[in-house]
Amino acid sequence: MPSWFGFLTLGAWLTTIGMAALFRGRQFAMFAGIIIGLHSLIAAEIADMFQPVWGLFVALHIAVYLHVMMLVRPRMRPLPYRLIVSWPGSFFWAGTLLAMPWAVIKALGFTPWGIVIPYALAAIGFLQSHFSHPEEVDLVVADAHRDTAKPLPHPRGTARSVRPLKIVQITDPHLGPFMSVARLRRIAEDAVRKQPDLVCLTGDFLTMESQSDPSLLREALEPLTALPGRVFACHGNHDHEAPEVVRSALTANGIRLLVDEAAVVDTEAGRVHIVGMDFAWQDRKERMQKVCQQHPRIPDTLRLVLLHDPGAFKHLPEGEADLVLSGHTHGGQVGLLSLGLPWTFLRLFGISIPDHGFWARGRDRMYVHRGTGHYGFPLRVGVPAEESLLRIHRA
């Protein structure tokens, strides 16, 4: 590795932190310093393994820093910028993070083989991050009680109703570099074409790039105005960063935002009682108990709870939900689902939060949607985004 590459990396890292502190504040500077610092250490360790494509390696390395530096003035960028900076930077950033085991082996004095593997995985993830996987999912609720105190994966069931409740769930679109207004608008149009009884939006609509322009989310969700009285939403954690932007976009499109509130809807499949839980980091058990007390169950009515974070499912009082709809985890975002295996990054490291699929705890059932977008880790890898029609059958 040329000596100037180390100085370039150190200088870019310090410049990123300085710009973040100057224009966004201490908290963002710490965040940028940690995530870019990790990238810098790994890239510096493996750099000399890329001599045959040295120019490309350096260009992509610079794109990572440019991408993060531009977040000090976040806004939705045009396609040319995404093609030149944010998409290549995200690809290389993800590949370099996945290359951490190779960097560790090399730091221990060994010569690892297969350094192309993490970047090949990142290339696959780059493609997956641009597309959603359409599905039709049958779920059986009100089936046999599962005697367990903690959430466990649960079979979807084989019972079938003559007229199931049809729901389209849209969660975690994270309007930003990989989720344009046009893409989210198409997802909303597809939801309308499926003619569901309900459309449920379970939060995390924005990224820091899309928070400053209220028109973006409003325009993206506009197709849902074709389903008046059938579209409901709850907050995700990131929605509290720009709550008025989210609320105004939902209201403008006739979408009812339920903030620890409930609504009753008559559908062709029967009456549905929808409870929307607000997102909270603290006192979740007490808050959820209070909401359930304020909005008790209605006899002979399907009870549907919108709960962004599936980790809070364990705090829901038992018997309060025939079905909980959640998101938040992006399906695990990195895993082996594309190979037909259930394992994700979360399960691999023993993180107990439900990551994707159908879960049960006592009499309650929960479906964790894989999300339509992603955020945090730069790409999806092995966990495709989801566009599904849920058919809810009562045993």
Task: Give an overview in words.
By secondary structure, the protein is an alpha/beta fold. Helices cover 36% and strands 18% of the residues. It contains eleven helices and 13 strands. The relative contact order is 0.14.
Helix and strand topology:
Elements: H1 3-23, H2 26-46, H3 54-69, H4 79-98, H5 100-107, H6 116-128, E1 132-141, E2 152-153, E3 165-170, H7 181-193, E4 198-201, H8 214-220, E5 231-233, H9 243-252, E6 256-257, E7 261-267, E8 270-276, H10 284-294, E9 302-306, E10 323-326, H11 345-348, E11 357-361, E12 364-368, E13 385-394
Parallel strand pairs: 1-13, 3-4, 4-5, 5-6, 8-9, 9-10, 10-12
Antiparallel strand pairs: 2-11, 3-13, 7-8, 11-12
Helix content: 25-40%
What is the arithmetic mean of pLDDT? Answer: 95
Rg estimate, integer Å: 22 Å
Please work out how many helical segments DSSP would assign: 11
Distance between the termini: 64 Å
- What overall geometry do the principal axes of the alpha carbons give? globular
Q: Reading side by side through the largest sheet, how are the strands ordered? A: 2-11-12-10-9-8-7
Q: Could you name the ranges where pLDDT drops below 50 across 5 or more consecutive residues?
A: none
- Which sequence of SSEs, written as H and E, runs from N to C? HHHHHHEEEHEHEHEEEHEEHEEE
| Quaternary status | single chain
User: How many runs of DSSP E, i.e. beta strands?
Assistant: 13
Proportion of strand residues: 15-25%
Summarize the main sheet.
Answer: 7 strands, mixed
The helix-and-strand class reads alpha/beta
